[in-house]
Every structure is written in C-alpha cells, then in structure tokens.
Amino acid sequence: MPEGHSIRHLATIHEGAFAGKTVRASSPQGRFADEAKNIDNRILNNTTAHGKHLFLHFDTGQTVHVHLGLYGWFYLSKNPNKKPKDSTRLRLQHDIYISDLVAPTACELLDDAGVSAIKKRLGPDPIHDDADPEQAWKKIVKSKRTIAGLLMDQSVIAGIGNVYRAELLFLSRLDPFIPGTQMQREKFDEIWRNASILLRDGSTDGKIRTVAPEHLGEDEVKLHGCSQFSYVYKRQRQSCRLCMTEVKETELDSRTLYWCPTCQR
Predict the structure, then answer these.
(1) What is the chain's Cα-based Rg?
(2) Are 117 and 149 contained in the same domain?
(3) Are residues 26 and 101 in the same domain?
(4) In which band, very low, low, confident or very high, does the pLDDT at 1 lie, cut at 50, 70 and 90?
C-alpha cells in the first residue's frame, strides 16, 4: 500500500498538472459517473494530502477524496488522446495532461464537512510543518499495544506504512514489541524526527530512501536512488547491515514485521 510520501508526491504532481485549469472529468468504468459530472469542466483549485489520503479540491466547493489502498494508483501522462482502461474509476484531463485513477479503495465526492470528518479520524502527518506530535504521543503513552502496532495505526500517526514502520524502529534501535506505556519520550521524539525527514525526502519523487550510503554494498551504491534498499524491511534471513545478526520476521496485526533482534533490544 502506498505510504504517506507517495500520496504527497501524487498531490504535488497533480497540482502542477491541473491546478488553476478547467478540467474535464469522466468515469470510463462508470462507478463514479454521477460524481464526475459534478466536477466536469470545472476548475481544480488545488490538492492536499493527509497521510494516505489525497484530496482534489474543485471550485464547486466539492472535493474528490481518494484512498488508493493496496492496488490503486494514478497514471499521469502527457497523452490526452490515450484510450482509458475499462477499470479507470476517474479520468481527469485537459489539452496537455491526462490522469487515470485505477482500482482505488475509496473515490468519493465530498463537501468541506466530509473532508473535515476524515481528517479528524487521522493522527498528525509528519510531512506537515504544522503537525503536532503531542497528539500522537498522548495516544501512544496511554496504550498497551506494541509500538510496532501503534505506528501502523493511522489514527495515531498518519502516513506511516509497513516499510517506514520497520525502518523507523530500526533507526531508533527500538524493540518493536515494547508497549506504548513503556515508551521513552526521547525515543518517540527520535521516531517523529526521522519520520518527518524520511517522508519529506520520499515525497520529492515518491521513492523510499532510508539507508545511509555508508551502509550499502558497493553494487548497491551504484543503484542508490534507482532501487529501494532497507535496513530490515523484507531482509528476513539476511544479515543485519550493522551487526550481521539475522533479520527476523513475524506477523503482527495481520502485517509482516521485520526487525533485528540484536540492534533492537
């Protein structure tokens, strides 16, 4: 599932392509046809993102809310004559750009109250300059759930998914199974600080970069920026980049967790 950096990147490139322009909207699949009519030939004012949620704001006062889920994606191109796939839920286009939204978990047309209701359910987003980490800390320190589980809870912190969860815990050398009630404030602050840095960095081009160049192999350095590398994510049964201990995996809350039992104890 795309994490917060990807959604912020998609919001940025869609704003660059469509903001301030009259946009034609359609639903080749048909499931969003009535809603598309309401924003067809209207101006897209701007885009915003919060965690894994993308918002396209139109001059009608209405907003298209998108949650991509596991399989959804936007396909943006400079080919306005391109034939859409039958599975395209929403097509936005003008004379230069075209964007097809395929297989989202959610695609709905909301008013301002509907947008506010979604954002109220979400925790602070570390990408935002005005995000308040205290909101997340108050929930974490009162919870007996594991910190690994809490980091994936979008009502606690918005935008962190399975990749960033594993990497942030490793970077903080934190046991993923510590309950929130036993979290040290300095460790939480470190996680928040790293999340802000890494998510913002990833939002520039939609790519996840968590490994320092000095911790990459010679062949990996040549591909840095082109391929995704990690400290522990999906490195089960491989050696930890720092201590050579075998990286472990387990199921937690129906998702796979990766960690180093030596560095994170």
Answers:
(1) 20
(2) no
(3) yes
(4) confident
Query: What integer best gives the mean pLDDT of the chain?
Result: 96
Measured N-to-C along each axis, helices 4-18 and 185-203 cross at an angle, to the nearest 10 degrees, of: 40
206-229 pLDDT, tens per residue? 999 999 989 988 778 666 665 689
Q: Write down the number of H helices and E strands in the chain.
A: 8, 10
Question: Number of folded domains in the chain?
Answer: 2
The pLDDT of residue 224 is 60
Is this structure's pTM higher than 0.85? yes
Q: Are residues 179 and 92 in the same domain?
A: no
**What CATH number corresponds to the domain at position 138?**
1.10.8.50
Q: Which residues are catalytic?
A: 2-3, 52, 255
What is the per-residue DSSP string for 186-226? HHHHHHHHHHHHHHHHHHTTT----S-GGGS-HHHHHHBTT
Task: Name every residue whose Cβ is closer than 8 Å to that of residue 41 and which is 6 or more positions away in sequence.
Answer: 22, 23, 24, 25
- Does 143 lie in the same domain as 98? no
Range of the domain at 177: 133-259
> How confident is the model at residue 218, as a pLDDT?
75
